[in-house]
């Protein structure tokens, strides 16, 4: 199948030697901990490079490294760690090119790692969804990976960003607007799985249009989060989110129009389906805008996807029937004002999976922590420092080489709706 998801590049960094910690280390147990930091970090970074890796392998490596880095953020007995500013960390931003942000703050490292883990989960879901036919178990795994991703981004936004000592530059990955867009996108894409399932099981029109409208709203919220950022940098991502919002709003009005027809409210049905047709045409135009907009990442091609290709014919089918029935039987006035989709309790909404940071690694005993001798003024700066892009512009970090996800060989799924998540 053609690419249905847009994915930004994963964050890139450099290998770390933790030399700042070595200067403070006193004893073999401190040396062992530093060695584990280096080895575990590198292993996790290598696993991030391939979204086909297993969730289990990523989770083990992620849990171990976060447990180790937490000792540089939080002291084992509570409060900020005395080691928090001893190491300079360098990370690119997902849409910032090769120029890294450079911070002497272990909290920045922790946020970058959690961000990459959340992005990896979203890419893993895309990898699983790249087949033309997906089993129930795989669909559940896609759904769960996207909910995990959303939960991680939400945790960053609500619990970690506030611990950074300075306001971030616009458009970096620690900008709350960027994190918010990622969280909303992952939740919306998890919701897409729910919509696909409802369509394939031929649920009532009211269930489908309610789920579709909620999904559209999430994509719109994600796009709105990016509106105040530089669109030469964020325009392609924004267009993707707007496109998905339009597609699911069109689906919502299509099935609402279908329900109105079944209720013999033909005049209202015609008006609603006319609006659905308009939204579908808008989505087609945004497809063109998205394709022409320059930007990084894995490019979605929804105009070639059966789920979108079948939308316009489905709208036409219901609209033609509504107009025909209204002209022969009902003779109802088509209202000029668009009927509002009724609000009702919606079951099956995808909610972000709760995420909490793993605890300190067992190597972080109070004895080991006390053995690190940090002379006053020995850190990378007085308190965590945040170098500007200008200061960092003298160096670049190469992007992470990520495997391409080729569309499936058989583009037409064997389902009535065009959904492949069954």
TrEMBL record:
The ranges of region (Disordered) come to: 374-422
The organism named in the record is Amphimedon queenslandica
Q: Which domain of life is it from?
A: Eukaryota
Q: What family name appears in the similarity comment?
A: Belongs to the BROX family.
Gene name, Swiss-Prot/TrEMBL: 100633080
| InterPro entries the record matches | BRO1_dom (IPR004328), BRO1_sf (IPR038499), BROX (IPR038898)
Instruction: Please identify the protein, giving its name as recorded.
Output: BRO1 domain-containing protein
User: What PANTHER family does this protein map onto?
Assistant: BRO1 DOMAIN-CONTAINING PROTEIN BROX (PTHR23032:SF13)
> Can you give the residue ranges of the BRO1 domain?
1-422
